[in-house]
Amino acid sequence: MDSMTVQSPPKKKSNRLAEIAAGKTFPTETHDVLKQEPALLEVSNFNLSYGAKQALFDVNMIIPKGKVTALVGPSGCGKSTLLRSINRINDLLSTVRINGEMTLNGEPVYAPSVDVIELRKRMGMVFQKPNPFPMSVYENVIYSLRIDGERNKAVLDEVCERSLRGAAIWEEAKDRLHESALGMSGGQQQRLCIARAIAAEPEVLLMDEPCSALDPIATNKIEDLIADLRGEYTIVIVTHNMQQAARVSDYTAFMYLGRLIEYGPTSTIFQNPHLQETQDYVTGRFG
Amino acid sequence: MSSHPLEKSTLPRRRRSRVSLFAQGEPMIWLTGGGLAIALCMITGLLLLILCNGIATLWPASVPQFQTTDGSVYMGEVTRAESFRSNDEKVRVLQRKLVRTGNYEISGEHFTWINDHDVKAETRPEWALVVERTTWGRFYGVPEGFTLGGTTVASTPETVWKKFNEYHNAVSERRAKIRALETKEVGRVNRRLEKARLELRTVEMSKGTDSSVWQSENLKFLETEKSVTTEFKQLQEEISQLRAENSRYVLNMKTAQGKDIAISLSDVVRAYPANQLSTVGKAGIYFSRWHEFLCDEPREANSEGGVFPAIFGTVIMTLLMSLAVVPFGVMAALYLREYAKPGLVVSAVRISINNLAGVPSIVFGVFGLGFFCYLIGASIDELFFASSLPNPTFGKGGILWASLTLALLTLPVVIVATEEALAAVPNSMREGSYACGGSKWQTIKRIVLPRALPGIMTGMILAMARGAGEVAPLMLVGAVKLAPELPVDSVAPFVHAERSFMHLGFHIYDLGFQSQNSEAAKPMVFTTTLLLIVLIFLLNLLAVRLRTRLRRKFVSAAF
């Protein structure tokens, strides 16, 4: 990736990372372009802690509608936690405490009146390791409709085909719809999980390192798929792979120790970030 | 983040001793392997002992005749031989044989010890006949004659044997018919009378004996009683006719001591000239005995005949127990693992469940007797079967209470196994379902339970093995030495949960320790044990196959 190593003009010299580790807080460096984007999801002053350990500090960001947003940062920086807070999967852990606000299309995500199950139906999620359910390919894809009590075979068939086509796995899966999903390869399983996630036509698709358990060829296929889904869905993707973030995303957010450090258009973040720390991270100088 | 330059440690490098046993690890292989070997030896030893004894029991032995120095003659099957210390100074260790001489009605004993050095001659009489009878045990002797309605029709062993074979089947059929009439038909007539009596009693309890309803009911009852009595008389006549026909056939035998004995053919279950049989003939007897053992009812205080009611009772009780224990155990484990917040209380509950597995089984039996039979059963009787009181219906031991008691006993096994299985379901599956908008119950029902099913089946298998082999609590809550009726039969309502039942485990105990004729019963103990083990093995095999299929469906590894 030559474009990423192009030297940019010298940044403001600072020692932010050490200061953050020491407990100091800095406002997020959010690029102005983002302020013009229509926001699907708005996160404001969001704090989260697992028991006594705080994992997210005052996160403020918007997820633009119809765009792919990548969350990057070193391990343990809270990017997965942030992603998992969006569909409130973190709620399943009894020790999680949350402070702050989050809105999806203007409606609050963390309000006592919110039906968490209904909320999750508006979002799709793809996990780090492919996790197809122990049932047939067909039943996997239409799982979210099944639990809604949809019985109309025509509807189910149509959704199944549309989702599998959407996840670019229709050709491989159409002859084995009624075989166990557990017999598929890892890459196929992950695309099946994407098909399952988009079956209910979610407003936002959350991807938690979707390629980290896959080989390069399967990874390529998933990346192509994300490129296809761009525009149609709002996607938030957590990734460890800088090249992947550069290839698939429109916006990139760099996180460190639970803080959002810099957030801007991917090209700027990778070529000409405002902060030296971001530059160091995306070019692989630390992390 | 900040890298440290590699510094050379100033400490001397610690060297691991090469002579340490643990460093090499080799002895641990021997230790662990030895442990397994000892365990295997003990298990296979036990199984082989049961297998050899159990399989050999029903094989017909030849019948030698011993003449001793004091002039006595004995004829019978050699059961076993052993050496013993004699009082004689010159010969210290002697050999003796235990011979099953039978003929209990003459000698008052089934077995006789014969010292080897007392034996003057040992012969194998060609026509030594072994007669298995419905009463008095086996008879050993030589056929002398065959009388048909008082007239002798054969007087040499060959012709008697021919006549025996000619008539025995017909006589046996008539005997079976008598038995069927005595149990089924008489039972049916009795049930009719009992039903009418209970109806009358119900009316009496609600309306009193002065009411007009009772008067008319009473008339109806008397009418039924009258018709039942005539029916009963007819049945008895039929039975006595069959008996009279059967009593015409008599086998005249001479014992080894020269005594003449007449045996009615209807008392003979099976007879064979033991010393003439070829291997094929012996195999025929062997298999016919196995058939009787597996399919018939016991006779002679359980030491002879079959164990079919016990097999049936064991299987039904085990199935009922599984039916009761699995849903409860799974529900309890689901709450503990999926719903309850982990903490002190849950830990305490879990420890208590594990401790429950260590409670002596007889304690469960006592609890079952007190709680199920005397409390719940008695309440049911008062509510629904008041008319038959003071005779208890549910207020005594029965197959339902036995199954529930064993279900309690095996509950910890199922709970622990199910919890393990639930814990083994990857969290990513649950998260996947929640992310799709599944509720907790939908996730459990559609994802967690199917995935945990093979593990739950393991729990069920363990519970079944434990439950089927349990005896102590059953003695208190419903297993009996001899049950007149099976707990499931063709009479409505088909499943009689209140009936007491026979159980193989209890049968083994009864044969081994409660039997009057314990020498004769001993080989049967082995055979019955073998049967129980085979039965448990088959039940387990069934469950294991089911589990394998489920596992292939739900848990097959993809990575």
How does this structure look, described?
- The complex is a heterodimer of chains A (287) and B (559).
- By secondary structure, chain A is an alpha/beta fold.
- Chain A has 2 domains: 26-122 and 203-287, P-loop containing nucleotide triphosphate hydrolases (Rossmann fold, 3-Layer(aba) Sandwich), CATH 3.40.50.300; 133-201, no CATH class.
- Chain A is 36% helix and 24% strand.
- Chain A has 14 helices and 11 strands.
- Chain A has helices at residues 2-5, 16-21, 33-36, 79-86, 116-121, 137-141, 143-146, 153-166, 170-173, 186-198, 216-229, 242-248, 266-271, 276-282, and strands at 29-30, 39-50, 53-64, 68-72, 96-104, 107-108, 123-126, 204-208, 234-238, 251-256, 259-265.
- Chain A is globular.
- In chain B, the strands form 4 sheets. In chain B, strands 7, 8, 9, 10, 11 and 12 form a 6-stranded antiparallel sheet that branches. A 3-stranded antiparallel sheet of chain B has the order 2-1-6, with no helix packed on it. A 3-stranded antiparallel sheet of chain B has the order 3-4-5, with no helix packed on it.
- The model of chain B has no long low-confidence stretch (mean pLDDT 84).
- With 559 residues, chain B is α+β, with helices and mostly antiparallel strands.
- Chain B folds into 3 domains: 65-142, SH3 type barrels (Roll), CATH 2.30.30; 151-270; 311-554, MetI-like fold (Orthogonal Bundle).
- The longest helix of chain B is centred in the first third of the chain and has 51 residues, at 157-207.
- In chain B, strand 1 and strand 2 form a beta hairpin.
- The radius of gyration of chain B is 33 Å and the shape is flat.
- Helices cover 59% and strands 13% of the residues of chain B.
- Chains A and B meet through helix 5, strand 7, helix 7 and helix 10 of A and helix 11 and helix 12 of B.
Brief write-up:
The complex is a heterodimer of chains A (287) and B (559). Chain A is of the alpha/beta class. Chain A has helices spanning 2-5, 16-21, 33-36, 79-86, 116-121, 137-141, 143-146, 153-166, 170-173, 186-198, 216-229, 242-248, 266-271, 276-282, and strands at 29-30, 39-50, 53-64, 68-72, 96-104, 107-108, 123-126, 204-208, 234-238, 251-256, 259-265.
